[in-house]
Amino acid sequence: MTDTPLALIRNFSIIAHIDHGKSTLADRLIQQTGALTAREMKEQVLDNMEIERERGITIKAQTVRLTYPAKDGKTYVLNLMDTPGHVDFAYEVSRSLAACEGSLLVVDASQGVEAQTLANVYQAIDAGHEIVPVLNKIDLPAAEPARVKQQIEDVIGLDTSDAVEISAKTGLNIEGVLEAIVQRLPPPKGDASATTKALLVDSWYDAYLGVIILVRVKDGFLRKGQRIRMMSNGAVHTIEQVGVFAPKLTPTDSLGPGEMGYVTAAIKTVADTNVGDTLTDDRNPATEPLPGFKPSIPVVWCGLYPVDADDFEKLRESLGKLRLNDASFHYETETSAALGFGFRCGFLGLLHLEIIQERLSREFDLDLIATAPSVVYKVHKTNGEMFELHNPADMPDGSVLDRIEEPWIKATIMLPDDYLGPVLALCNERRGQQVELTYVGARAMLVYRLPLNEVVFDFYDRLKSVSRGYASFDYAMDGYEDGDLVKISILVNNEPVDALSFMAHRSQAERRGRQICEKLKDLIPRQLFKIPIQAAIGGRVIARETIGALSKDVTAKCYGGDISRKRKLLEKQKEGKKRMRQFGKVEIPQSAFIAALKMDA
C-alpha cells in the first residue's frame, strides 16, 4: 500500500448544507468503485451510528479509501471524507478539511445555496482547498441547474462553467464526479525520506483494539512495530496495527506520505490522543508540530443528573466513553440540592446536546434529567476579578457584581422573500441587531447579530415555523458584550430550587418567571397545605402562583350539635396545616422537573 505515488492520491471531503445529498453521493462513489459488494451495500453506509441513520443526519465525519481506474489508464487512490452539514458539527468539518486538499461542494439543484453551504465553503477556502461544484438532484422536476449555477457564482464567486450535474439517488453521472476528482483536485504534497509527521484527525474507542486513531500522514512512514510519540503530551506508544478504511478496517504494512488511515497502539484512554496533535517517530522526532486546528469551545452548558442516584458511577463511565470519540464534548462533576450528584456538560449547540442525551439513554441505558441549557457568561466583580459562569446557580451576590458580559453570535439566515417580515420580527424580538440584508434572485440573505442566550432555547424551532421550514440558519461566535442580565431563582414553598434557576435579560425576566410559575403550578401535585411558587430576582419576587391545599372534611362526623364543636375542629385543622407548611418538604416529582425544563422559555 505504501508504494502509491503521491501523484495518484487524492484526498477530498464532501461539503454541503443539511440534506443536499452528501452521504448519498458517498454511497454512490463507494458503489461505483466497487469498495463494497452489492450484498454489503446499504443506504448511508458511512453513517454507522443508529441515531445518524434514524434522523438522516451525519454527526461524525467518516473516512473511506477507494481505488478508481480512471480514463487516462492510471489507477488512483481516493481518500473520501463525508462531513456533517449541521451547524453544531462544524468542528467535525474543520478537522476533515485540515486532512484534505480539495472539496466537492454539493448543492441541491432545486434548493440552491443555503446558509451552511456558505459556512462550509468558506471553511474550505480558508483551508486552501480546490473546490469542484457538484449540482445534485437534477432528476427532480423542481431542479433549476442554470439558476443555481448563477446563484453559486453570485453568492460564493466560484466558476460553475464546468460544474458536474448528477443525481446521487439514481447514480446519474457519478463517473463524471470521479473524473473531476482525479483531473481537477491537486495531489497531496509530502516527503517520504523526511522525519515522520502525521496529523491526528480523530480517535475513538474500540472494545477489542483499544483506541483507534485516524491519521493523515504528511511526511515519512508509519509502520507496524514503530515507536511513535505524541508531540503535545510526549506519550510514547508502539504501533500494533496500521491500515486503511476500505470502508472496513483493512490492515496494511505501512502508511506513507499523503495517505489517510488508522493506527492502533494499545492506547487505553482517548484522553492521551488529542485531536489535532502530531505523531512523530520516537527515535528521530520532528522539531516542529504540524499546524493543528483550534480546539472546540463549548457554547451551551447544562446539568445532566441520573434519575436514580445509584446510576451516578454508571453515568460517569458513560460520559467518559462518549468523550472518547467526541472531543468537542466537555463535562465536570457538580451537585444540586434538588437533584443530587450529576455533571455539568458543555456542548457545541442544542442539537449536539440532544444527540449526547439520546446516545446516553440508548447506548448506556440511562434515565437522565437535564437542567435548562445556559450559555457561558463572563462575570466581572467589583474587586476586578473575572470568572466564567457556566451554571446560573453559581451566580455571586448582587453587591459584589460589577457587570456581566454575554456571548453574541453573527447569524446568517437565507430564506424566500415571502417570509422576510415574520423572520425580521422574530430577530428583533430576540434583541437582534440587523447587519445587512441582500438579495439573490427571490431569496433574501439576512445577517443579524443576536445574543446567544436568546438563540439556545427555541430560536431554531421558531424560525422554522415562521418560515414554514424554508429558512436556513448558520452562526458563528462574535465576541462578548455587556448585558443587563439577571438571575431568576425559582422558590417552591420558600425553598430555592437551584436546578430551575436561569439567566434572562431584565426586560424579559417577568414574562419568563411568570411562564415557569404557571407551568409548575400544573405540574406539582397538591399537598395538604398551600404551596407558593415564586420567581425572584435577588430578594424581589416578580411572579407568584399558589397551589391550593387538598381539603379534608374534618367536620364530617359532626352531625347536629353545637356549632362551636365544628369550629374547634376547623381551627385545629388550620393549626395543623400551618405547622405542616412550616416543616413540610415539597417533593417535586422528576416528571415535573423534566416538563418544566422542556418549557419554551
What is the CATH architecture descriptor of the largest domain? 3-Layer(aba) Sandwich
Mean pLDDT: 79
Strand order of the largest sheet: 11-10-16-7-8-15-12-13
The biggest beta sheet reads: 8 strands, antiparallel
Work out the count of structural domains: 5
Uncertain stretches: 44-48
- Net shape: globular
Organism: Roseomonas alba
GO molecular function: hydrolase activity; translation elongation factor activity
Family: Belongs to the TRAFAC class translation factor GTPase superfamily. Classic translation factor GTPase family. LepA subfamily.
Pfam families: EFG_C, GTP_EFTU, GTP_EFTU_D2, LepA_C
How is the secondary structure organized here?
Layout: E1 9-16, H1 22-32, H2 50-55, E2 62-69, E3 75-82, H3 90-98, E4 102-108, H4 115-126, E5 130-136, H5 145-155, E6 164-165, H6 174-184, E7 197-206, E8 210-219, E9 222-223, E10 227-230, E11 236-238, E12 241-245, E13 249-252, E14 254-255, E15 260-264, E16 278-281, E17 300-306, H7 312-324, E18 330-336, E19 340-347, H8 350-363, E20 368-370, E21 374-375, E22 377-381, E23 386-389, E24 401-416, H9 420-429, E25 433-440, E26 443-451, H10 452-455, H11 459-466, E27 472-482, E28 485-492, E29 495-496, E30 502-505, H12 506-523, E31 531-537, E32 540-547, H13 563-583, H14 590-597
Parallel strand pairs: 1-3, 1-4, 4-5, 5-6
Antiparallel strand pairs: 2-3, 7-8, 7-16, 8-15, 9-14, 10-11, 10-16, 12-13, 12-15, 17-19, 17-20, 17-21, 18-19, 22-23, 22-24, 24-26, 24-27, 25-26, 28-29, 28-30, 28-31, 31-32
Helix pairs in contact: 1-6, 12-14
